[in-house]
Amino acid sequence: MKKGIDVGGSYVKVLWEDGRREKFPVREFSKDREAFLKRILQIIKEGNPEKVGVSVAGFTSTEGVIYRSPNIPALDGVKLLDLLKHEGLEAVVMNDVSCGAFGEWFFEERNSKVLLLVAVGTGLGAGLVIEGRPFLGARGSALELGHHIVEKGGKVCSCGRKGCLEAYCSSYGLERIYRELSGKELKDYEIVNLAKEGEKEALAAVEVFKEYLLVGLMNAVHILNPDLVVLAGGLIEGMKEFLHDLEERLISMVERLPAEGLRVKFSSCGEYCMARGALALALT
Ligand SMILES: [Zn+2]
């Protein structure tokens, strides 16, 4: 039996080939490298899987080395694929959003020639699947869509640069937009809830968020010419009711040729999105 594993800073989520799901809390280990690796190896090996796909939040090279994981410092520099092979496991290791994109193609969208998945939550990440194959770049770090500049000299991003898409389209981005409009310090979900109640500043903040998201997607469509853009992630999930005109607006913004046949959809795979993609990798 094969399984997909999504290694995050708070939980490790597992999806088995037969549909079984498991979720293990790991936050208590996430700063202690030895304890964290021991625990995730236990979880990965549990049940003697025949092959595993592992999704990791962070810069992951094509050789399965985690260069840097902003949310899981214990994984920085870890040669995860070598470690799994050393344990006798047949394994594939990939960045989490690339996994999410591949899972979407593998389980739902096999007719898509170029599928772009954009996940918005704490940060903004993207994954690309071209003709059924994840596109990772030369070293594994392609699709850093969150860190392309949409405003020269703009707001400071988590990466330290200014004006990145993520500086506007992320939890902290939305919180900052709202703070500047209202003078109030609120969490992303509180702002979304206020927008749902019709509060003027919250609605305005959501609109600013959308305008930047549209610019980011327009740039991506002009560069990559996808036939499908899949929107995923916690913040997108919460804001869905404000985003229904996104496809129409995006199509009106891009050139006619890439607009032809372009679809925008919301991912339906929820919190096991990345584990599902990791499973898809194990199945191929
Ligand atoms: Zn950035």
From TrEMBL:
According to the record, the signal peptide region is none
- UniProt entry keywords in alphabetical sequence: Kinase, Transferase
A molecular function (GO) term: kinase activity
Q: Where are the transmembrane segments?
A: none
* Domain of life of the source: Bacteria
Q: Which Pfam families match?
A: ROK
Question: What PANTHER family does the entry give?
Answer: BIFUNCTIONAL UDP-N-ACETYLGLUCOSAMINE 2-EPIMERASE_N-ACETYLMANNOSAMINE KINASE, ROK (REPRESSOR, ORF, KINASE) FAMILY
Q: To which protein family does this belong?
A: Belongs to the ROK (NagC/XylR) family.
Q: What is this protein called?
A: Glucokinase
Taxonomic lineage is:
Bacteria, Pseudomonadati, Aquificota, Aquificia, Aquificales
